[in-house]
Description:
Blueprint: H1 4-29, H2 35-48, H3 58-61, H4 64-67, H5 70-73, H6 90-127, E1 129-133, E2 137-140, E3 148-150, E4 153-156, H7 163-178, H8 181-194, H9 199-222, H10 227-237
Parallel strand pairs: 2-4
Antiparallel strand pairs: 1-2, 3-4
Helix pairs in contact: 1-2, 1-9, 2-9, 6-8, 7-9, 8-9
Amino acid sequence: MISMVAILYYLLKVSISLALVFLFYQLVLRRLTFYNWNRWFLLGYSVLSFIIPFFNISPVLEKNEWSGSQVINWVPVVRSQSVADITVSESTLSFIEIAGLLLLSGMLLMFLRLLLQLLSFRRMVKKAACISDQGMKLYEVNDPIIPFSFGNSIFINRRQHTEPELQEIIRHEFVHIRQKHSIDMLWTELLCLLNWFNPFAWLLKKAIRQNLEFIADQEVLDHGISKKEYQYLLLKVTGTINTV
């Protein structure tokens, strides 16, 4: 049976991996306009962060040909140990048990939060009116909302926007549907559920979602709308400016 010590050690390595993924994106890739490539980097390497800790690279680093490397001398090697070899005092064991309890409690709260969000979404779908069902579903919501999409459905409030604005909004959201961005969104929720204590998980969630918006925005701009008009539309949609 896997001990709590092993789980905490695994999550520590996952946290370090996620931090490296975010820092590389923030410092190197974020300023580039290869938004689709950035999407696969963020998605792929955040998933790999949960797999990499299972690989033990210590034997490779300890080979003779690496021993003289100046770079490796700066890298601290964490030697693997079996849980049976770890000797801890009763006070340390109590700390580990408390840490494990806090970890599981946080995951449970995050799961309940996600469940409430899904239930709220389901209630909104039941109240909304489906005004189109041609390849994608277009729902009209009476409540004041920021237009959004999930799965193959788009949710709007037509009273908040003019017809030309609605066309660009639907075009923007259709990009999310066509490229299945909902998968990325669900992954960010799972990422923060499993690593709720890690600030880099939340930063990655924000980066992934922001990059998805960059992708959709670029596609809309490529279809001919002026950048100034589109910026005005984004401000109106997000409620930054007042509308009558």
